[in-house]
Amino acid sequence: MISFDLSEHKIHHIHLIGIGGISMSAIAEVLLNHGYRVSGSDIKQSNIVDKLKRHGAEIFIGHRAENIQNPDLVVYSAAIKSINPERVRAEELNIPQVDRAEMLGQIMKKYEKAIAVAGSHGKTTTTSLVSLLLEYADLDPTILVGGELDDIGGNIKIGKSQHFITEACEYVESFLKLFPFIGIILNIDEDHLDYYRDLDHIKEAFRSFVKLIPQEGFLVACNDDSNVREVYGVGNCNVITYGINIPSDFMAKDIIFDREGHPMFKVTYRGEDFGDFHLSIPGVHNVYNALASIATSHILGIDTGKIAENLKRYHGIHRRFDILGDVKGAKIVDDYAHHPVEIKATLEAAKQYPHKKIWAIFQPHTYSRTKALLKEFADAFGSADYIIITDIYAAREPEDCEVSSKKLVSLMDPKLGARYMEDFEEIVDYVYENIQPGDLVLTMGAGDVYKIGEMLLNKFQ
Fold first, then answer.
1. Which of 51, 86, 113, 124 is catalytic?
2. pLDDT digits (tens, 9 = 90+) for 123-149
3. Domain that holds residue 115
4. Which residue range or ranges hold the Mur ligase C-terminal domain (predicted)?
5. Does the global pTM surpass 0.85?
6. Residue 167 catalytic?
7. Residue 125 marked as a ligand binder
8. CB 159 within 8 A of CB 140
């Protein structure tokens, strides 16, 4: 592990392996803004790669040893293993190497008001909400978000203030390399069990995250989540809680939904009226995300009226209940939900949205998650009228013959009528032939299941 100061250092040229990824590309853009020479490599051309090239990065397509042209530091993403030819070459040349999370932590140290959004679910949405509340309040934050946010024209915005906002990913304890002034914990669930032993191991990691926050800093914590309640007392920082059911500092009351399924609610702060709020994104789960954002904005001194006004302006991020269009009078929606808790929350949000029947098309993500949470997945689809499960998206993992989408379907209640369908074209044809005007077709998963929605729209056109 190396440590350096971004203002006083001897490192001038930084090479990023996997530079085209959402998080790595954001880091590259921040480094370019700070005056570094940035090079990198990725396996394919993309709009993100083209954007970085326009900003001055030198990018190679494909991973090769000769791409390492004597940089002072090499940064690699979680997907890049030690056998990667560029990492091997850097090792041969004794060039220091750090992972993405460590670099992100070093960048955070430059900002006095660094905000890290942690939790098993909702990180991208909450990071986006906080980011835009600060942006619209003219605090000019630097923003790194794990998705495409139209309001900032992508996944990153470079600001000139001391405010910095990013997601804090718990996978392989990456978030323990960060330096937050404000930490947010949205929820804690069993996930990433290819790394963590069990839920207790996950909670221990979150306890360590809490301890990173300095005494003068703040932890914003969801009081309704019993696992969060177990961890937030271990630090020495200020703690601000929020919730709907358990008495908390910030509480949402009298939640109702408009005709589009968007929640409206009152907020109290330590028992006193804090104002009325109306979201433009669906679901009770987004009331929780909004409460975390409201609490964080209040800590930073943003006017309550501005918070309410600008929360209403937020219409979501790509792949979070993302309305793609209409086919035969049915609405096509895509969502990143890839955990049983997220699936339930997304389907509950869909129930509040105008619809006749709900179609759930799900692509499990990773063999390890599907295997570890197989029963929970089987029980997660009760709010859907039609269920289609396609093959597991392997991502970083080799095939595991002990688990499959067919096995998942076999464990579901037969009354649900879930079916396994392997081929995307077959799914598109089946849905196209059977949907009715007023139906809601929802694709869910962290892989490439979104292509089904795109294919449906193209078929209609």
1. 124
2. 999 999 999 999 999 999 999 998 888
3. 111-313
4. 319-447
5. yes
6. yes
7. yes
8. yes
